[in-house]
Amino acid sequence: MDPRNFTFMFYGFLAAWLIVLLYVISLARRGARLKKELEDVRRLVGSAQGGEVARLEDRVR
Amino acid sequence: MREKIAIGLAVAAAVLLSYNLYEMFMVLPDEAMQGAIYRILFFHAPAAIVGMIGYFIALTFSVLYLSSGNLRWDSLSASIVEVSLVFSVVNIVTGSIWARIIWGIWWTWDYRLTSALVCVLIFAGYLMMRRAIEEPTQRARLSAALCVFGCVDVVIVWKSIEWFRNNHPGPVLSIRTGGGTMDPAMERIFYLNLLAILLMAIALVLVRTRQEATAREIDSLRRLANAA
Amino acid sequence: MRTVRQALSIARKDLAIELRTKESLNAAGAFAIAILLLLSFVFDVTSEETRDIAGGLLWLVFAFAGALVFNRGFARELPNECLDALLASPLSRSSLLVGKAIANLAMLLVVEFVSLFVFGIFYGIRWWLHPWQLAAEFVLATWGISIVGAVFGALTVNLRLRELMLPVIIYPLLIPLLIAAIEITNILFSTQPSWADGLLWGRLLVVFDIVFTALALLLADTILVN
Fold it and tell me: What ranges do the domains of chain B cover?
């Protein structure tokens, strides 16, 4: 039997877990980025809408 | 709610994987002909199965998108393709490492490996293309068409090279060892690991789909902000 | 029948434009000959091994030249909103798609024939040994390439990165077709052709063509939208 048998088994497991781990990390980073972007855009829309309401209130007054 | 389900599935998968790893290394003996390295098959084959099933489920959602126009189907399809691609890559890499020891070569052009590689190429192109298109409806349309053509193509590659494998004799990838069936103890762990990887894949898909929904919300809010 | 007539009129229009400008034909033809020339430096053209891989070299060249042809296919309709006019016309979507594919087929066949001629000179391959079989193979394989090129050319017409994306999407899809075409071409160029094998691969070509043409027709309304 090939003497590298056990080593290569270890490499195989390492490869499988590493690939999945890298994907999970990229997913987590993407999630954090999207969350931040959502907050930013919500604030932007909030201020835009808040601005509109303020202008309307001025006209009424 | 969805987050709770994803976390639950991830925890279940982790528990099952831990149990399986313990069984694999502590309880099961080395295989007679292959030695220690046969244990790679416990991840290699389930990854392949989960990947392939994923692509065909994504195909179903793509067709659903094409008939209904609801972008949620497109998000689901894209998430499943992405997770399936990860598992397909795991499949090819672990298979290569196993083959280096058992067959003495990193690669061969038999039907399973060739179709696996074509699959990865097609769906990597799918993801690349999605990144290049900003308009959601156009992206969804193109993705759905590519998914349909891609899945049909993978079937054609699989079947055609299978017909011709008589011309190119080569080692046949099989979970059955030495002509007999797999030892029942090993088979049990194999199916348990398949379940664990399936649970992991579903959890990842749920997380990814949630991210796609967030991206759509950001997109629509931006349009609202621009319109205001 | 009406679809076929409409498709042929679209093809005729495209070919008339092409014959006037010759932009795609010149570009694809020059590209094909340049690649063949470069490849002739890579291999020893007189050796037996090169004869064995001749089919592969040829079909690689055709696939790359094809990308140049498909890029122009729907893109030439973008200026002056010709594509919108075509979509608004009473032409069915499927006839538009098939018409474009027929035009692609014709242009690609011209490029292939010229390349074959040059190939015969550079590599000393006697490609005229089985002309009818070779012609049939070329038409079948090129149709497969053309219909996939037409579908994805239509889908990517509005993209910024169309020239980049189209090859990335198309080539993996064409792998089974190209494998079959390469094998048949190698069989037809060999001194002792194995007809049984050739027919097997030919069957794959036919299956590919039928399945992908059917898919294209089925999805034509989704592929071609305003």
Answer: 2-29+36-167+180-220
